[in-house]
Design a protein that fits this description.
The complex is a heterodimer of chains A (156) and B (130). By secondary structure, chain A is mainly β. In chain A, 13% of the residues lie in helices and 33% in strands. Chain A contains two helices and eight strands; from the N terminus they run ααββββββββ. In chain A, the strands form two sheets. A four-stranded antiparallel sheet of chain A has the order 1-2-8-7, with no helix packed on it. A three-stranded antiparallel sheet of chain A has the order 3-4-6, with no helix packed on it. In chain A, β3 and β4 form a beta hairpin. Chain B is 3% helix and 38% strand. In chain B, the strands form two sheets. Chain B has a four-stranded mixed sheet with strand order 1-7-5-4, with no helix packed on it. The longest helix of chain B has 4 residues. The radius of gyration of chain B is 25 Å and the shape is elongated. The termini of chain B are far apart. The chains are: A mainly beta (156), B mainly beta (130). Chains A and B meet through β1, β2 and β5 of A and β2, β3 and β6 of B. β5 of chain A pairs antiparallel with β2 of chain B, so a sheet runs across the interface.
């Protein structure tokens, strides 16, 4: 004999629990206050263009990788202040194409700047940066206090 | 007593709804294309690709550029991931005036620069009147 399954109206079971509405709002608020709060997605209106970033953390370092193709090392500025890392510079156009007819111009040209608020304190004077194949890799060593430590607690 | 049983619904075989989008393997690189009297110049942005990762091929008058990213291993946890870790691919249909045997390519800091010269006979030239 097939068992009868009780059919519940889905709306009733969901909406009577109004508490869930407020957590939904909290979640949306949290989306806008990402943990790395100063990270704003590159907005076409305000800044025009900013490099795409990846941020990694391991026990010794924070690593930031930015995509910045077609630049010279001298044209990229990386600075660190008060726990925020700023990558800025200017992407120059090619002068030799001045009298050429342009079919497509998708690449961005001009000044850019992006600031990242770092989630852990780092030693500012030991920051290293490397630029290969259009990817800027910045390694920021964490301060001793920020590294995870094993604390053994004796239970008496 | 009659009992009605609710039968479990069969999933509807509607192929339009069930078709999955093709897995994205590639993203198109941003390009700048310029034309001068001598030829075309194409710059493609492919950060994270080195010379070894490039595959440029020509079939008829169709030019395909594929850039495979370098393997990147970073220890640790990704806190924020904006870069798309996909390889690059873009196909171009070439102007028949291009001399395909003379196409040259250069790769520097993630920018591929292709120089595509036009054939000599297509270039504008003056004809002298005797």
């Amino acid at each position: 004999m097939n068992s009868l399954t009780r059919w519940q109206r889905p709306e009733l079971s969901g909406w009577t629990d109004l508490g869930r509405l407020s957590t939904l709002r909290d979640e949306i608020d949290r989306l806008f206050e990402a943990p790395l709060a100063a990270l704003t997605a590159p907005s076409q209106l305000l800044s025009g263009w900013a490099p795409a970033l990846d941020v990694f953390e391991n026990k010794d370092n924070l690593v930031v990788k930015a995509e910045l193709p077609g630049m010279k090392k001298e044209d990229i500025e990386v600075s660190f202040q008060d726990g925020a890392l700023t990558i800025s510079g200017e992407r120059k156009g090619q002068d030799k194409y001045e009298d050429a007819e342009v079919y497509r111009s998708e690449r961005f040209v001009g000044r850019f700047q992006r600031t990242v608020s770092l989630p852990a304190p780092v030693n500012g004077d030991q920051v290293k940066a490397q630029y290969t194949d259009g990817v800027l890799t910045i390694t920021l060593p964490k301060t001793e206090e920020a590294k995870p430590k094993q604390i053994n607690i004796n239970i008496s | 007593m009659r009992t009605t049983t609710a039968q479990p619904e069969k999933p509807v075989q509607n192929n339009n709804l069930r078709r999955q989008p093709e897995p994205r393997e590639f993203i198109p690189p941003q390009v700048n294309i310029f034309e001068t009297a001598d030829g075309y110049s194409l710059e493609a942005e492919m950060p994270g690709v080195s010379k070894n990762g490039l595959e440029i091929s020509l079939e008829g008058n169709e030019l395909t550029i594929v850039g495979r990213r370098n393997q990147e291993t970073v220890e640790g946890q990704a806190l924020f991931c904006e870069r798309q870790h996909l390889d690059y691919r873009r196909v171009f249909e070439l102007d028949p005036a291009i001399d395909t045997a003379k196409i040259t390519a250069k790769m520097d800091q993630g920018i591929l620069t292709l120089t595509l010269p036009k054939s000599e006979k297509v270039k504008p030239r003056k004809i002298a009147v005797e």
